[in-house]
Amino acid sequence: MHAVTRTTGPGPTAADVQAAAERIRGQVIATPCLRSRTLSALTGAEIHVKFENFQYTASFKERGALNALLQLDARARRRGVVTVSAGNHGQAVACHARRLGIPATVVMPQHTPFVKVEHTRAHGAEVVLEGEALAQSFAYARRLVAARRLTLVHPFDDADVIAGQGTVALEMLDAFPSIDMLVVPVGGGGLVAGMAIAAKSRNPRLEIVGVQSESYPSMRAALHGRTIAGERNTIAEGIAVKTAGRLTRRIVRRLVDAIEVVGEPELERALTLYLNVEKTVAEGAGAAALAAVLADPDRYRGRRVGLVLSGGNIDPNLLASVIVRDLVRQQRIVSMRMTMPDRPGYLARISQVVADLGANVLQVDHRRLSVSLPARSATLELTFEARSAAHAAEVVAALRQTGLDPEILPP
Fold it and tell me: Active site residue: 36, 59, 137, 310, which one?
């Protein structure tokens, strides 16, 4: 089996990361690393964001994929490559393989978000949807390696891929040498492993914190000799990896200072903050580093923190849902239930109270047939949009002044 993947040995060195930087220079974007005044004020840390969502395929994965592809010999290039991906790595391999004239096959789990499947196909790769999870997709890819003599470009457990991902840290520290902490999303561990190799070679005291979704804490579990079930839903599907890499976990154990986990509310809040503050789109995995700082601000306060916004490939329907859910949490969208007299014009009267205060009615459910109410009463469930939580409270208070008793429904 001819394969790029190497899961034994010590892994790449700092020199390998530097060589990768030279090799891929001019073929991927040297994305901006910018200080965020607003996020710094919000968190109490000096926050620097690395916008890897600005890559052509909208994620850091281009770096490692390209570094691996560029080192294939002529025979391997003719035969082609296969990889396994839930989206971003597949797009990166497809994009650069087409540019280099290398046939590419990308095996993806059957439930991969549609937008990532279509983007991968648009880059010219053969896409195969196989398996409920990545484990089944990997098994199928290995059969393709044997049957078609393809080269497997592993999404994270590969020395060349890891070295390519480490170039993120080089660019961050070139831009801001004073950074004393890097916070990095972790799935299989390729990004954090490569960045740790590069960063620790420049400053051994620099602290590296990896971040995982609490639904898929595979790296943290692996470091403690455990496995995870990893079957819960998460908006951070890009780091929803059940099994951490063998090579990456050895590097992480040696060089990464901590692996933290964050919940779905923190991920959603971070995603919407990037949208509202930085005016940029992050996918759930891409927002994980910021989510960690928001979840434990005392840990980061006063530090010079580099955050990796690792990708921006998010399904538009999911993004819309997260935005609306954030408005609900901020009480800018409020749902309430009340009992009202069943008289002509009363519903219009309630609507007028809301409108007079500048709020906008989004949804009305008017029920007149509930046997639990008096015959001349009705139940009204009303959802409205307000400018702020204080504005919403003003609307509710005005309705109470009319004699109604609105019950605020929980999010």
Answer: 310
Contacts of 324 (CB under 8 A, 6+ apart): 333
Class of domain 62-158: alpha beta
61 noted as active-site residue:
yes
Residue 103 CB coordination number (10 Å)? 17
Got the DSSP string for 222-234?
HHTT------S--
Catalytic residue among 61, 200, 213, 215: 61
Where exactly does CATH 3.30.70.260 map onto the chain?
331-408
Cα dist. 64→24, 156, 160, 163, 257 in Å?
9, 8, 7, 7, 23
Instruction: Please give the Cα distance from 16 to 32 (Å, whole number).
Output: 23
CA distance 228 to 343: 58
Transcribe 67-81 into DSSP letters.
Answer: HHHTT--HHHHHH-E
3-class DSSP state of 133: coil
Predicted TM-score of the model (pTM): 0.89
3-class SS at 57?
coil
Q: Which two tokens stand for residue 35?
A: 């200080």
How does pLDDT run across 30-42, given as a tens digit for each residue?
A: 999 999 999 999 9
pLDDT tens, position by position, 204-247 = 999 999 999 999 999 999 999 888 876 678 999 889 888 899 99
Q: Residues of CATH 3.40.50.1100 domain(s) within the chain?
A: 17-59+160-324, 62-158
* DSSP-derived 3-state class of residue 50: strand
What's the CA gap between 70 and 11, in Å, rounded? 18
Which runs of consecutive H residues, i.e. helices, occur in 256-345?
264-277, 288-295, 297-300, 316-329
